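Box 3.1. Reading complex inputs
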Amino acid sequence: MNMLINSAETVVADALRGMAAAHPELDVDVERRLVVRRGAREGGRVGLVSGGGSGHEPLHAGFVGYGMLSAACPGEVFTSPVPDQMTRAAAAVNGGQGVLFVVKNYTGDVLNFDMAAELAGEDGIRVERVLVNDDVAVTDSLYTAGRRGTGATLFVEKIAGAAAEEGAPLERVAELARRVNDSSRSFGVALSACSTPAKGSPTFDLPDGELELGVGIHGEPGRERRAMMASREIADFAVCAVLDDLEQVAPADGPVLALVNGMGATPLLELYGFHAEVVRVLAARGVPVARTLVGNYVTSLDMAGCSVTLCRADDEMLRLWDAPVETPALRWGR
Amino acid sequence: MNMLINSAETVVADALRGMAAAHPELDVDVERRLVVRRGAREGGRVGLVSGGGSGHEPLHAGFVGYGMLSAACPGEVFTSPVPDQMTRAAAAVNGGQGVLFVVKNYTGDVLNFDMAAELAGEDGIRVERVLVNDDVAVTDSLYTAGRRGTGATLFVEKIAGAAAEEGAPLERVAELARRVNDSSRSFGVALSACSTPAKGSPTFDLPDGELELGVGIHGEPGRERRAMMASREIADFAVCAVLDDLEQVAPADGPVLALVNGMGATPLLELYGFHAEVVRVLAARGVPVARTLVGNYVTSLDMAGCSVTLCRADDEMLRLWDAPVETPALRWGR
């Protein structure tokens, strides 16, 4: 598999050098693997720190900036960052109001963020943690006990980030982040496998003509494998899986925030066509769509496919969603 | 090749339905294949119309909105839109100040936009045309006499769009658009072929382990095929090709606008790493970078690879580049 890289060993460092060059408004520490919003400690705000394995860009570093994350800790490709990165990030963004760790539910991430929270606490930094576990496809997976964390991470980071920007205290930001996660569900589909730089070839076997329903963002197995389906059939399956689960928990009224997300290699032309089918299913189920995002936001390297994330958003969440944001990958309204 | 589609015949219409659902701020005419900025005729502005074959998203429809295009005419995948779309677009956006057609240099596009300009003229609409032909890889190509139009289209649409938003008259907007094109050069590289929905399999043969230097955005052949190269070597080749050509024309001083563009299937992680190499080569050649954009903007369906576009920008161009823009794919500062 041809890749636009120098070597598997330098992929993450090279990308961080590129981010530093492209985004002078961010402090990028290539050696220590930290991307920090400039002036993150100022302004009396709660700090928002996230991170995880690389290969899901723009998540997380592309969401650092005004109104969203204070810092991101990128690990190696599909590998958790280490606690040292997270404690440094916490120190770099804590202006005295405390720090919220946004953690996708993968065992390595959870352990490392927990250790970092403990270490930061010993340094006198108040830390809260929110676990993102929105993927309804499977319970327990290759790298996860419980549900995996995927597209809802974007919702959590955007909405909690807006609250922090407004000056909300730590407990409030954390409570809101948990509420967004609790109100969100996702389902992903792979049309092709992805290839990590270290392996240089597909990390799992998905023959042309078949798709994986419920795939994880590292290619973890989903619910079932089937013969290739039309976009409308995939939307039926994915949206119903999300809604069926969502309705068990949240009150089944009110509008949703919708993320129609590309896994990496699926053309935007196809994602928009898929979005039309998602909207059709939602209309048939009587679910109004309040806000929409279509594009590559939580990716899996060069995997072809898509995911749908829905968040049953209340008025406060919608107001914070609409609030200005200025990051490399998400910006509006300022 | 698995694709997220209903059928090859409905790909463009499906995508337009999705755009209509995702972007209520745009008027999307699915049947007539038009994407128009709401209120485009109001405000006493020159109208900016572009279009071309689909498969290059977000170009062009993703650039319709405040401060950029007034309308886009999407053709079938890799196929020119028809004159009827363009005359309808001209009529839909002309508020009396005239219309600028931004045309990428492909024979079908050129012929059809010329015919549309004539027809619009007969209807009393003043039309100017700018031809974008920035690709230095080859002269004459599969679908082109002269140079192909690629990444500079984004620069032309953004900068001319900002001038139109400010109320500049047609001649001024057209002159500026031509100046941006004359100051811009591009070079593209394919690491894999792309697959059109109609064909369902790769449209050209590029074996794993080889790359195409100078590829066009439809997979047209470039300068040469080589064994796979490292990111830094690709940057050396591409940036030098662009600069060598750029220096023949524009005064070789002043900063550049840089677009490091993904062809579709190359992960953002890799694009940022490539950008670091692009910046290195530019520094070595003594070229300051004034502004940077890294991401998928002028794509070729699911092709893996990248392109570099540089524009030797004067102060006016930089000011207009920085001006607020609010479109599905490009937004800042408002």
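In summary: The two ends of chain B are 41 Å apart (CA to CA).
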